[in-house]
């Protein structure tokens, strides 16, 4: 086993325990948003040192900012060593009120220059949230901006908390108000053009084409999804197989499914039962 793989697989298997965090409403009722940021920042050193010393890779530059943002939106910051029952390659960051874990993924044989993806741990594996920390922060800020601009008072308050939490990194990642200035009516279109590619958005785009009866555009989108946009993940091929099957291209659907099964089962984004 390579040194990096051995280090990633040897992470502590300690019981999961929350280190802090409050609900979304609780975050608004706290004495100040800055106190929430300080509480999250107090735990972030554990994650940075864990990534550096245990995962044996460079920590994302704005990992502390992401932890603060996750905390500000109501997630509990959890120990990076709270990995019992989890895939050994993940580094837990926070837990949502629904019990989902936002984590970093440490590929054991990541290509040079590839940043640690942000993933969500689900019952059947991992779901890719963003290719890197900056991209995920960017999306969170844009979506908060969108909801706040719609006139939602709660989201206006949440947006202020998020901007306070992200700190100095914020303006370098997203120019506040840029979504409105762009006059882009469709949030998904803005995210794809200005922030990056996201699995859920590409799948939603293809599904909408199918709902409109535009099978050609759906195929183009699902095929684009598989073009090495998300290295190491089998999910794009699973989804492409589903699209191919829905429009009656059975042989193409089977071929895409075969390609998907060459990836780790926990990257498929669906329940998988291996045959004997």
TrEMBL record:
Official protein name in the record: Uncharacterized protein
Highest rank taxon of the organism: Eukaryota
InterPro entries given in the database record: PAB
